[in-house]
Write a structure and sequence with these properties.
The protein is mostly helical. 57% of the residues lie in helices and 0% in strands. The chain is built from seven helices and no strands. The relative contact order is 0.18.
Length: 199
């Protein structure tokens, strides 16, 4: 149970209601972190714009590597919501999500490539407190992905640290996205309702 409840549609303004509709259309359900942030309209709008802009900005590092780095970060921080949502994103990309069960043994598991192991190590080094990134790590990644690619990876991993730590602090837990059967936030209306009535 989250420490702050999701904002119900009847308590939300028109912009938040539109955001709820768009989120439901995109991922099948309103993500609970989104519905909790809606209590603060400016933070809600800031987060929504930022996530959309971030998706558009990524173009150098292959998406599966980015998703794996973000997933590992969420797993390390212990955000079950982000782990759940991240597994769904990988499933939608057509990736094998069964291998994620072996993320803790990535160094020895044959389910991960050398490139994936390198990205996971980088995620771990950034997420460690204090940070443990080395010059050698960055140099090796620059050689493969260039400066732009390293900036993409670094930004995504550090942003996931923010998301995961915020969700963890607010008591937000998995919502069932990875199974393809996302549970609804408590107030969500039936998807079968006419568009004029549904959120």
């Amino acid at each position: 149970m989250p420490r702050i409840p999701a904002l119900a549609p009847e308590d939300a303004g028109p912009i938040v209601k539109i955001g709820y509709r768009m989120a439901r259309k995109q991922v099948g359900e309103v993500p609970e972190p989104f519905a909790i942030m809606a209590h603060h309209r400016k933070i809600f709008m800031l987060a929504a714009r930022h996530e959309l802009a971030l998706q558009k900005a990524m173009h150098v590092v292959p998406a599966p590597l980015i998703e794996l780095a973000v997933y590992r970060t969420a797993w390390t921080v212990g955000c079950s919501w982000c782990v759940d949502f991240g597994a769904m994103l990988q499933r939608l990309e057509g990736l094998n999500i069964d291998r994620l069960k072996e993320i803790g043994e990535f160094e020895t598991s044959d389910k991960f490539t050398d490139d994936e192991r390198e990205v996971i190590r980088y995620s771990d080094a950034i997420t460690a407190t204090p940070t443990e990134v080395t010059d050698e790590q960055v140099a090796a990644l620059v050689e493969k992905y260039g400066h732009d690619g390293v900036l993409e990876l670094t930004y995504q991993i550090t942003h996931e640290n923010q998301r995961a730590r915020m969700n963890h602090a607010l008591g937000i837990t998995d919502q069932g996205f990875s199974s393809g059967d996302a549970c609804r936030v408590p107030w969500a209306t039936d998807l079968a309702e006419p568009a004029s009535q549904a959120v």
